């Protein structure tokens, strides 16, 4: 029965293909709040979320915190269902999303909701705490394993930039054409600057992305200026 065998193989392939199609996360932005890429939610950020979850099969709401305080968690660490970890990545504060999450990225066969249930979440990212990001762009020389630490007096060159909501980057300070800036780590007055310089080796070059809470805070300053020696 060669034809029956071929049909059976095709039928099996169709099932596998159909199954793979249902495993994709659906993500739709219903209210956009554009922000710079550096301000988008990334793995390791503490995110604050308001949500409402319902069953995709019948629209029944099974969980919601819309009339409560936002929940918060560290993104990308497996503390929530994978559909949330993946779906909230790249979101800006204030944005609202609809996440269509297949059961494989939700609760699977277990949980208090029906087994193998596909879910739909309305999600709003109301706030986030960014983490300090440090990328070494040029290795330095750490003789005798000596790297900079708190209270060390150091000389540095730097370029200070600010990321604007429209996606542009503005340079607000640059001392490469001048003498080195001499300062004491821990006494700069900008937490992110202190943390970004600490642990560096002689000659090392770094890109340090400083979140607002470790920079100039929520209030900012009227005129951007260089760190205090």
From TrEMBL:
UniProt-listed InterPro entries: FKBP2/11, PPIase_dom_sf, PPIase_FKBP_dom
Reaction(s) this enzyme catalyzes, per UniProt: [protein]-peptidylproline (omega=180) = [protein]-peptidylproline (omega=0)
Pfam families for the chain: FKBP_C (PF00254)
GO molecular function, one term: peptidyl-prolyl cis-trans isomerase activity
Domain PPIase FKBP-type positions: 44-129, 151-229
Protein name in UniProt: peptidylprolyl isomerase
Organism per entry: Caligus rogercresseyi (Sea louse)
EC number(s) given by UniProt: 5.2.1.8
Assigned keywords, A-Z: Isomerase, Rotamase
PROSITE patterns for the chain: FKBP_PPIASE
GO cellular component: endoplasmic reticulum
């Amino acid at each position: 029965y060669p034809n029956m065998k071929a049909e059976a193989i095709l039928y099996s392939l169709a099932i596998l293909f159909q199954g793979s199609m249902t495993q994709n996360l659906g993500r739709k932005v219903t209210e956009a709040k554009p922000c710079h890429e550096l301000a988008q939610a990334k793995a390791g950020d503490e995110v604050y979320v308001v949500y409402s979850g319902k069953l995709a099969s019948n629209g029944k709401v099974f969980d919601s915190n819309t009339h409560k305080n936002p929940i918060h968690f560290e993104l990308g660490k497996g503390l929530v269902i994978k559909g949330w970890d993946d779906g909230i990545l790249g979101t800006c504060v204030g944005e609202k999303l609809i996440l269509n999450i297949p059961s494989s990225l939700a609760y699977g066969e277990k949980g208090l909701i029906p087994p193998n249930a596909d879910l739909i979440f309305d999600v709003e990212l109301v706030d986030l705490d960014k983490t300090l990001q440090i990328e070494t762009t040029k290795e330095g020389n750490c003789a005798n394993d000596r790297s900079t630490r708190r209270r060390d007096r150091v000389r540095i060159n730097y370029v200070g930039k600010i990321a604007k909501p429209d996606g542009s980057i503005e340079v607000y300070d640059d001392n490469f054409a001048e003498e080195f800036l001499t300062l004491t780590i821990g006494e700069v007055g900008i937490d992110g600057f202190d943390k970004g310089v600490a642990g560096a080796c002689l000659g090392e070059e770094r890109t340090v992305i400083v979140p607002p809470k470790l920079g100039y805070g929520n209030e900012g300053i009227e005129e951007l200026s260089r760190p205090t020696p």
